[in-house]
Amino acid sequence: MKRLFLMECRKITRSVLYWLYIAALVVTVIQNYEATVESELRQTDNPASVFYIAENGAYADNTDKLSEDTEHTMMIEATKRLIDNYRSNSYEYYPFGYVKRKTLSEKEQATILLYLKELTGLDEPFIIGTDENRDSEDIQISGGGAYVLNPGQGGTFENGQFIIEPEDWEYVENNSGLSQSNENPGSGFEIQVTFDRFKEIMDCVNNLIGRNSYFSWTMLSMYYYPNDMQDNPITEQQHREFYEKDHVTGAFARYFCDSIFLIVLCLPAFVIIDLLLKDKRCKMNTLIYPRTESSAKIIITRFVAVGCMTMLPILILPVKSLLTLVLYCHNIGIPVNIFAFAAYIFAWIFPTVLFVVSVALFVTILTENYSAVLLAGLIWLFCRPSVDKLAGGNYGLFDLIIRHNTLKGYGRMIENIHTLILNRVLVSVIAILFVGFAIIIYDAKRKGGIAIESRKSFNNHNRKHSHEL
Hints:
- By secondary structure, the chain is mainly alpha-helical.
- Helices cover 58% and strands 4% of the residues.
- The protein has helices spanning 2-13, 16-42, 68-88, 106-120, 124-128, 195-209, 217-224, 236-245, 249-259, 261-264, 267-281, 285-288, 295-316, 319-332, 340-367, 371-382, 410-415, 417-446, 455-468, and strands at residues 91-93, 100-102, 138-140, 146-149, 155-156, 162-163, 169-172.
- The model is unreliable at 131-144, 175-186, 452-458 and 464-469 (pLDDT under 50).
């Protein structure tokens, strides 16, 4: 068993796809994870940093609901964005976790216009942005600046609808000198509906655009509702969770697992597919099938070998940041959990790797071709978590990926820990079942229950039979 395992591991290390998998992991970790560790360590005096320790023990207040001012800001900014999207007829949405742009039909645009009239109380010329009403339009952005549309910029469609190209806007760092008076109704308006009616309108707009558009309640909540994704001063609860529950490394371990989810959701399948089909490419099937080794031993050994080799770089890559965090905590006298990365990787990443590898194993043994590549791509496309699960804590029973795109949120994870555990167990069990099915198929092929002859052998047999006739 050990000899066979080592042989399979050596074969994996000679695979180009395996090294491409490692390269993808390295690039992803450097871009999505390492920068966060360095950034947080440079901002230990920033009240928004998880490392921040208040000298007087006073932290930000816990806030779990929208204030009236925040509600008003949400309505104003969302309506401004809807006006901008309407004028350019370009709407962003996230159907599978990545951004796409959609152009609405004339009928749908007319519906959006009706909603804008209801929201702002403005007439159509001011919303469309005709020449006489767009002399000083501006779209406010965070940070105190603004994108300003100067007179004469932009264009119109054949139907007279105003369109703005990205290069038409000029960014102004400080908009304090910009006119915000009511002389320009296109940029200065008041919301004419209640907050409940606003949410109803946004829901209708989202249905017109598509899944998880900017105007969905999920996205609006993410932008405006107090949550762990925002760069707000940390609360006392968040401070205690980071230092006393996560022991620093736990928070970064979750973030590390989140940063590599796109890689583990697909690429491990390519490693097992390449390993299995290498024997067929080298015409080794006739040598392997008659061997005295049991089918279960061969399949399980290959499965374990791929699982170990794909997990090995995942365990090695966070070592640098682990040592950095341990050294920092040692210098300030804070206890640290040195096993946090290993624990989260095996609990959050390993079940997903097992599932992806087991499905590819089963399909490849069944078909003896590259069909599993297409299936792996479909899994990657359709099993990506939606944007409402970015902050973590919102777990589904059949989620293949556990998302937690923040260093905060330990308490929310604990509140839903039972669902999380059940999810990981279920994914692991399904993976084991696929391995069992693969063993059955493989054993049947070895015994001749399922034809495994190549087309060439089949043609030779037909020619021989015809000659005898």
